[in-house]
Design brief:
By secondary structure, this protein is α/β, with parallel strands linked by helices. The protein is built from twelve helices and 13 strands. The strands form three sheets. Strands 1-2-3-5-4 form a five-stranded mixed β-barrel. Strand 12 and strand 13 form a beta hairpin. Helix 5 (162-174) packs parallel to helix 9 and helix 6 (192-203) runs parallel beside helix 7. The protein is elongated, with a radius of gyration of 58 Å. The relative contact order is 0.06.
Length: 414
């Protein structure tokens, strides 16, 4: 056998050696083939081995009874998922198959995900409702009573919607004297939930607001979604001002409805809940006034009748007679006191008069009336009792019973 000739079956292999591929090249070609074949496909499967590292990306395995598929959901997509992903959850994912070249592993890059058999928003609503319910945000014990006659009402809603017009019209029709403060916010779309939550927080810094309405008109579940956001629920729960949630129509129930102190089926009903009807209140007050006046009049008649009965009773007559007798005895005692006092005063007066007469009889003035006089110094009016110290020419003052004279000593006789 001539081994210099190539074997027949080696001919093609030998020829193909000129096109040997590297690992990277064949991986890249497989990747291109997969990406072309499995571009934008829907896949159904059960979540398994889910991981969420600090990068924010989500890695999970989708599996069924016979196979499994590695998938990745990058942070930009993962952050927009409304519901909570869990192992064991059946989901529908939308994305494209590619190859992770460094490992030679094919994987599905998820661009959208939703729970199987239920919309993503509906599941997100149920999950948040369950979690906040366990925390007690819906407890009746936490709900505040609405003021019966609010002085100032705040409304958090859009200025361009029909809800604000409906609320204001109803309030003014029912109780025109109330003050209204409007805090305009976005009620749907990106950033709406944050604006609503901030508005509720800001209004709680204003001291004279009695109650607050937070809401908007009807729309799809997506339109109303801001009122299902956790940030809005927690802002309502933290509000010290009572909050009425008025979102959509009667059939629309949002998380804010469950947390709020009062749920209004529509914005129009919110206006009816927040203030009473003035005419009804006025009519009720008038009826109450009439009943009070009648009750007071009946009470007066009853008391008057009771008093007349007491007045005409034998026991009251005995008591009155006893009082009259005591008054009579008191008058007699008083009269005796007056008589005794008058007699005592007269006796004392006579005694004092006698003492005065005796004092008057021994008075120097009385002596002067009998012709005597009193001589005193002119300078100090001191009486002069002897000639000692006197000199001729000294002036003396002589007092008589009537009048005085000043004299001069002519001679001193010892």
């Amino acid at each position: 056998m001539d081994f210099t000739e190539p074997l027949p079956f080696q001919t093609d292999i030998t020829k193909n050696r000129k096109s040997i591929l590297t690992i990277s090249e064949i991986t890249r070609r497989i990747r291109g083939s997969l990406e072309q074949e499995f571009f934008h496909v829907w896949v159904v499967g059960e979540i398994s081995n889910m991981k969420r590292p600090i990068s924010g990306h989500v890695y999970l395995t989708l599996k069924d009874a016979d196979a499994q598929l590695q998938t990745v959901m990058f942070r930009s997509v993962a952050s927009s998922v409304k519901f909570e992903l869990k192992d064991g959850m059946e989901v529908l994912v939308f994305g494209s198959v590619t190859v992770y070249e460094s490992r030679g592993q094919y994987q599905l890059i998820i661009e959208a995900i939703e729970p199987k058999g239920m919309g993503a928003l509906q599941l997100a609503f149920l999950q948040l409702k369950e979690r906040l319910g366990k925390e007690g945000l819906f407890d009746l014990a936490h709900k505040k009573a609405l003021p019966l006659f609010p002085g100032k009402i705040a409304i958090v809603t859009s200025l361009t919607g029909a809800a604000i017009r409906d609320i204001i019209q109803v309030i003014h029709r029912r109780f025109a004297k109330v003050k209204i403060l409007i805090y305009p916010v976005k009620v749907q779309g990106e950033g709406a939930a944050q604006e609503i939550a901030q508005a509720i927080s800001d209004l709680n810094t204003i001291p004279d607001i009695d109650v607050m309405i937070v809401g908007r008109g009807g729309g799809s579940l997506e339109d109303l979604w801001a009122f299902n956001e956790e940030v809005v629920a927690r802002s309502i729960y933290a509000s010290k001002i009572p909050v009425i949630s008025a979102v959509g129509h009667e059939i629309d129930i949002t998380i804010s409805d469950l947390v709020a102190d009062k749920r209004a089926l529509t914005p129009t009903e919110a206006g009816e809940l927040v203030v009473p009807c003035y005419d009804q209140v006025s009519d009720s007050l008038e009826k109450i006034k009439t009943r009070l006046v009648q009750a007071l009049y009946n009470k007066i008649l009853l008391i008057k009748s009771q008093l007349m009965g007491i007045k005409n009773s034998l026991s009251f007559k005995k008591l009155r007679d006893k009082i009259l007798r005591l008054q009579q005895e008191l008058d007699e005692v008083a009269q005796r006191l007056i008589t005794v006092s008058k007699h005592t005063v007269e006796l004392e007066w006579e005694r004092l008069t006698g003492l005065a007469n005796r004092l008057d009889n021994v008075s120097p003035l009385k002596v002067l009336e009998r012709g005597y006089s009193i001589t005193t110094n002119v300078e100090d009016d001191k009486p002069i009792k002897s000639t000692e110290g006197l000199v001729v020419g000294k002036k003396l003052k002589i007092r008589f019973s009537h009048g005085n004279v000043v004299s001069s000593i002519v001679e001193i006789v010892k």
